[in-house]
Amino acid sequence: MISVIVPIYNVEPYVRQCVESLLAQTGADIEILLIDDGSTDQSGVIADEYTDARVRVFHLQNGGLSAARNFGIEHARGEWLMFVDGDDYVLPEFCSAPLALAQETAADLVAFRYSKYQDGSLNPVPLPQWREGEADWCTAVDAATELAWNKLYRKSLFEGIRYPVGKVYEDIATTYKLVHASRKSVFSDKNLYVYRKRPGSISVSKTKERLYQGLEAARLRREDLKKWGYTGNPDNFPEFRAWDIIVLVDPCDDEKYRLAVEEFAKNKRAPEWMNRKQKVAFFLWKRCKPLFRLVRKK
Questions:
Q1: Whether 162 contacts 133, CB under 8 Å
Q2: CB atoms closer than 10 angstroms to residue 274
Q3: Which terminus of the chain has fewer Cβ atoms in its 10 Å neighbourhood, N or C?
Q4: Pairing mode, if any, of strands 30-37 and 2-8?
């Protein structure tokens, strides 16, 4: 059985579509754990409307996304786990296709493609490093992305691993550990998940403290990967997060802001992952900080 864990917090306009898409799953034995994380709108009330035997509803005091996911892990009855955010939705084979692949290949983790829904438009997300089939763990760390919800996990992978409570960027701090714990990770080209990008969601609310937490998680990730013998570039994630801080946070004397500057100052040239606009901004940051400060938020 697959336990699908759905944290719900103030997603009233979207939660029905989310749950209905899970109830429409084909070819897999599933349970759906709807975890109302102290919603102040009608999200929890809507969750209680579902009387399908596959649905279990829990109401918690607000503890954040990590606490809700961890609660779901502890109460899951299935051998397999999947995650869905309460404002997203999934395709009918979301559960059955990864499970069939896991059973066929004896994999502990199956990752699959996803699409982004924004401003009324649905588009598949390009994943340049993605290759269908089995991957060694270093390749899987690079290609699987940090996302929690485009994967099927054997529940045993979570022994000793939980999402960090009270932190954002919780996926950065956790997913790579699950990939490392997996004896075999397999990739599927099937596009099975729809991520909704909307104003006010955690993923687009980049406050200073959230950005700092992202850098902290990325730096810890780098330390672990180096310790485990990772052969890729462990600096990419800290650089992503540090650049967000340099661009979005007003220059200040915070210790964490200084860490972000130190993280990037070692680069003599723009990192390969930057696009053209970012490379121009990087050049200004290195050569003319007053001009960079004028244009950085653009």
A1: no
A2: 17
A3: C
A4: parallel
Q: How far is CA 87 from the centre of its chain?
A: 14
Q: Write down the residue that tokens 């200004």 correspond to.
A: 284
Residue type for 106, please? Answer: A
The pTM score is 0.92
pLDDT tens-digit readout, 28-70: 899 999 999 999 999 999 999 999 999 999 999 999 999 999 9
Separation CA 266–CA 144 (nearest Å): 27
Please report the pLDDT score of residue 205 as a whole number: 52
Lookup: tokens for 62: 């607000």
Strand, helix or coil at 204?
helix
Positive or negative torsion for Cα 117, 121, 124, 126: negative
How big is the chain, counted in residues?
Answer: 298
Q: Tens digit of pLDDT for each residue in 80-131?
A: 999 999 999 999 999 999 999 999 999 999 999 999 999 888 899 988 788 8
The answer to whether 86 touches 124, Cβ cutoff 8 Å, is no
